[in-house]
Amino acid sequence: MTVSTADLWDERGPELDSIALDFTDFGGKIAFSGPARTVRCFEDNALVKSLVAQEGDGAVLVVDGQGSIGAALMGDMVARTAMENGWSGVVINGAVRDRVELATLDFGIKALASNPRKSGKTGQGEVDVTVTIGGAEIRPGAMVFADADGVVVDK
Fold it and tell me: What predicted TM-score, i.e. pTM, was given to this entire model?
């Protein structure tokens, strides 16, 4: 069952934050939800790759790439791994690559843009920390709801 973010906002507005960014849907699944797991990184996807290699248990990976579209934080192989490991979807404040292949996956992927440039692999960043994206604070474990209208998260 899919929950409409607009209807959810109408019902629970004061309990929610809305990420005020213009995301593009890159995956084949538009609506998804689950508890947040978070990563903060800059043009380096080693932590993203490491997390999605673990069992996702229906979680949504929220990646604060600090709004950089200078390098992709997810491509088709990392997205496929996330999908196969039971992640519900990913919200990326940054870029992806392999957009044609991403669109074939039954997996939710929202990001700012695409860029064919690979990211760094040094592992710089933080996992399971509170991040602020588009004016919304996302803490690990908070419920994230995404659809064609956008992304809302429990406060």
Answer: 0.97
